[in-house]
Amino acid sequence: MKIDRRSFLSFIIGGAAGTALSPLPAKLTDDLSIWTQNWPWTPVPEDGEAIYADSVCTLCPGGCGISVRKIDDRAIKIEGMKGHPVNDGGICILGLSGLQLLYGPTRVKTPLKKTSNGGWKKISWDEAIAEVAENLGKLRSEGQPQALACISGSDQGTVPQLFRRFMTAYGSPNYMCVPSSQDSYSITLKLMQGAQASAGFDIENADFVLSLGSGIIEGWGSPVCMFKANSACEAKKGKVVQIEPRLSNTAAKADQWIPINPGTEGDLALGLAHLIIKDDLYDKDFVGNNTFGFDDWTDDKGKSCQGFRQFVLENYGPEKVAETTGIDADTLTSLAKSFASASNPVAICGRGQGKRPGSIHEFIAVHALNALKGSINRKGGVWAVPEPNYISWAEPETDAVAQKGLQTPRIDGAGTEKYPYTKSLLNRFAEVVGSEGESPVKMLFVSGANPCFTLPDTGAVKAAFENIPLVVSFSSYMDETAKAADLILPNHVFLERYEDVPPPAGVNKNVIGLSKPVVDPQFDTKHAGDAIISVAKALKGSVGSAFAWDSYEACLQETMGDKWDSLNEKGFVVPDTAPACEKTYTTPSGKFEFFAAGYEQVTIEGDEKWYPLILMPYDSMRLSSGFIGNPPFMTKTVEDTVLKGNDIVVEVNPLTVRESSALFVKDGDYAILSTPKGKATVRVHLSEGIMPGIVAMPTGLGHTAYDEYLAGKGTNFNELIGPVEDPASGLDAAWGIRAKLANIAS
Amino acid sequence: MKKEHEHKAKKYGMVIDLDKCTGCGACMVACMAENNVPFRADETDKLLSITWMRVYKLTNAMPFPKTEICYLPRPCMHCEGSHGHSPCVSVCPATATDYSEATGIVSQIYTRCFGCRYCMAACPYHARYFNWWDPVWPEGMEKYLSPNVSPRMRGIVEKCSFCFHRYQLAMEKAHYEGRHGLEEDEYQTSCTQACPAGAITFGDLNNPHHAVYKLKKSENAFRLLERLGTNPKVYYTSSRKWVRQAGDNYLRDEKDNVIDKSKFRN
User: Which has the higher per-residue pLDDT, A597 or B104?
Assistant: First the structure.
């Protein structure tokens, strides 16, 4: 048979048509797509038995109950625990990302010792404990126990208390905690109510919430609890008024946003007090029966003193306050009226997530405003929540060395005559230790904190760390502080360990939680509680005998006593004993005390002439700015108007650019941001949601430690600001710093 | 009463209360954690960043201090179109995405998808994402991957499934227990469950006993780009008019910027 052109073409075309009509192309496409998807490197998660394990999240002081979904021994998802008194099923973005912290690559997998060339050497736990004990022993034999300092993330709960106990038994008064706005509140409650308590806000039952910059839905206090309270308040038609220079999420969701000149919030509160008193709108019953210092009074020596009423009437007239705050007098009047006419109004302060303390002037002014309406220790008001008292260990016996060491003054000056109510002043740490010369601290423990990232003037803090001969970190992650340490004794992460969870911060919920191991320890880590007990035992003597427990678990079980069983079963207990100091005031007068003279305002750092703008931080739920670094999931949700590539984006009003002679930028352009403390290259986002003259920078970025998902992204706000001491408490009260934005020199 | 609805086709949908949404982003992470969504070192190019659920930030474009912000979470809208002709389903050459008449869920079958991205072009909500890279989890992190959702690979499109695996698991359980239907709380998406502000409600839009049935009828309810006739199953409510108007496009000279909803609602 001859193959001519015609038959050849017929064969080809016929064949093609036949193939096209057959199922072959579809089958091939299907096979091809399946085949190209079965790459060996695409993980196929193993199936197994699914169960839920309950615990409590300790990534922030919120104390939310969590249910962890597990497949065999793998934890695969963290969910909010239904029926938990704090969060009832809700959960925040950080809690949801918790498994990335558990299984993440930034964990410290074994005890590590820094080598002379700055690298890390794996050591065993026995070696690590022996090394710490040996150095501690040396310091003690030199009669310098006070040269040991400890930085703890919190003061509450058994683990921080074990560290505190260790310090006492060892003989050093230098136990310091990371400060927050709760410290300022504690001092306020001490001054005005005589209470040793923390402030708990009942937003849920309030019908008017006046927030002076508090990020009620941005992570203030116990985040999920506050979210729920805010929703509940709104559902009941309660009003929320947000006062701050930037249109934050809280401001955006509030019924009214009133921008204010930053730093004048205290004056605003006193201005509102003026209007409420002038129009006789205050709660006369409460003020008359339960307070002292409202009217003029005479002291023991017969000297007449000005009362709060006269003080605010004389000094905080609406015209004057309108000028300082930048809020016009009409707005002030209507705000005062709505606050006074609400049946359960409450005023709250502590900027952003409340992670930074503030000026006592502001806190007592806001608290006085609450007192004027009687919103103290009542439904929908602010409660003095007594410090948890479930830890009742016998005082450790101290030997002569320890007694001598404990008598030395604290290096940070807290608790002295000048600052009698302040417990610790970590903001002074860098200055006290210094970057050169002999450091008063020879050895430092850091647990549950990342001061080399979270303390203002981070550069000076890091230099101070280098000046300390031996830094021991108990961090689970290779964070900035762990990197700066000489020894790392890695703690289990929260899903691998037992720990009591004190009542949640900032809310009036009396709940004690128990964090339980959900999975076995993934690496060769040790509970920080066990580590400190082992160190104490290795030291022997009175230090060792102060820690009679065999293990942390035994200590916890003994501490919890009869609560242990129900804690273990349910995950939380609600102590039924009502707080004793609810209705009583333990001030000298036995009443709530108003302060007439007030305390001084703080002035932020920087000269207006050189730095015409003000740089302020802002907190966001999507950026973890505390001692836990942002997990990859959270960083993924960060908007490109906050972080673009590796550049941090700052918010500026277009007017600021228009009125500036040094700055010509469009949205997204680069600029140089400088403050008296440092300089950074930033991108500028022009936003109408911010007051002219202000530059707002997100917190939680600019890590130098951790992995490629976090390190090197953006700038750490704390590098651009230094602490400013509050004249009343000594705590850091800097809410911002003067700054300048300029074009990049081309 | 109940029996009636058990046999009627379900139409799962969502009502998101924008007055309650705080823009915290918990829904986004709840979704990523539930559905094995990968992540990369740089996720700031939002066109490439795979977020089945994405929270958008809307502003009223007014100058300071009259500026307002509203956050808007955007999952897949699971458009019904007319009779299941959703934009993406209509164009898929591989039948990798399909409209389920039984649940109203628009599926995405990864193993069938060969990555032509026609559906992405067709979707007016940018709800679909293409895997430009192989997913890589840092060493050790594969441990948290859920066996209920297969990890996707380079070259295919993925999107929100209304956590369909949860529906399957709930149905399996119900079947095992000899029941035919599901209670409202038996099948909830991961984002709904996580939302700390309680802004998201999920359920059967056809079932008068479900919360969404009533909520979608609110005066303040609207859907995104309703004029396109995509007939989405995600409803939003907002008490603010500018937010409701931001849900669609209007001509500048249009007399009343409010659309006649009766035309589109069914």
Answer: B104
Residue that is written with structure tokens 């009509």 in the block: A21
Residue B265 pLDDT:
44
Confidence bin at A299 (pLDDT 50/70/90)? confident
Distance CA A526, CA A516 (A): 15
Do B140 and A105 contact (CB within 8 A), yes or no? yes
- Can you tell me the mean pLDDT for A226-232? 93
The reported pLDDT for the residue numbered B266 is: 41
**Alpha-carbon gap: B229 to the closest alpha carbon of chain A (Å):** 30
Please tell me the predicted confidence (pLDDT) of residue B2: 47
- Shortest CA distance to A45 belongs to which of B146, B141, B153? B146
Q: Would you say the ipTM is above 0.85?
A: yes
Which of A44, A218, A635 faces B43 most closely, judged by CB atoms? A635
The DSSP string of A299-333 is -TTS-EE--HHHHHHHH--HHHHHHHH---HHHHH
- What's the rounded Cα separation, in Å, for the pair A128 and A134? 10
* Helices and strands counted in chain B (H then E): 8, 10
Instruction: Report the amino acid identity of residue A457.
Output: D
Residue A647: closest C-alpha in chain B: B44
- Same structural domain, A269 and A335: yes
The C-alpha of B75 sits at a distance from chain A's nearest C-alpha, in angstroms, of 14
pLDDT > 90: percent of chain A: 87
- Which residues, other chains included, contact A556 with Cβ-Cβ below 8 Å and sequence gap of 6+? A158, A498, A499, A500, A529, A564
Provide the pLDDT for residue A601: 80
- Name, in order, each residue with C-beta under 8 angstroms of A452's C-beta and a sequence gap of 6 or more: A458, A461, A462, A465, A479, A480, A481, A483, A484
Q: Above 80 in pLDDT, residue A652?
A: yes
Residues contacting A254, CB < 8 A, separation 6+:
A211, A240, A241, A242
Q: At what angle are helices A400-407 and A158-170 packed, to 10 degrees? A: 100
**CATH number (domain holding residue A119):** 3.40.50.740
Q: A618 and A713 share a domain?
A: yes
Residue in chain A nearest B154 by alpha carbon: A37
Residue A489 phi/psi, 5-degree rounding, is: -110, 85
A524 with A419, same domain: the answer is yes
Q: Where are the domains of chain B?
A: 2-263
Q: For A633, which DSSP code?
A: H
Count Cα atoms within 13 angstroms, Cβ side, for A345. 26
Cβ distance A246 to A616 under 8 Å? yes
* Whole-number pLDDT of residue A38: 74
Average pLDDT for residues A640-663, to the nearest whole number?
A: 93
Q: What is the DSSP letter of A48?
A: -
CA distances from A182 to A40, A512, A557, B116 (A): 52, 18, 28, 55
Instruction: Find the residue in A nearest to B55 (Cα).
Output: A637
CATH tag for B2-263 (out of 3.40.50.970, 3.10.310.30, 3.50.50.60, 3.30.70.20) = 3.30.70.20
Q: How confident is the model at residue B259 (pLDDT cuts 50, 70, 90)?
A: low
- Residue B204 Rama label (left phi>0; alpha psi -120 to 50; beta): beta
Of A518, A521, A502, A493, which is closest to residue A560 (Cα–Cα)? Answer: A502
Residues 199-258 of B with CB under 8 A from A: none
Pairing of strands A512-515, B97-99: unpaired
Report chain A's mean pLDDT, rounded to a whole number.
93
Beta strand pairing call for A112-114 and A120-122: antiparallel
Q: What is the pLDDT at residue A211?
A: 97
Tell me which chain A residues have a C-beta less than 8 angstroms from the C-beta of B142: 43, 45
In this complex, how many residue pairs, one in chain A and one in chain B, have their CB atoms less than 8 Å apart? 206
Look up residue B133 and give its two tokens: 């890279």
DSSP-assigned letter for residue A13: H
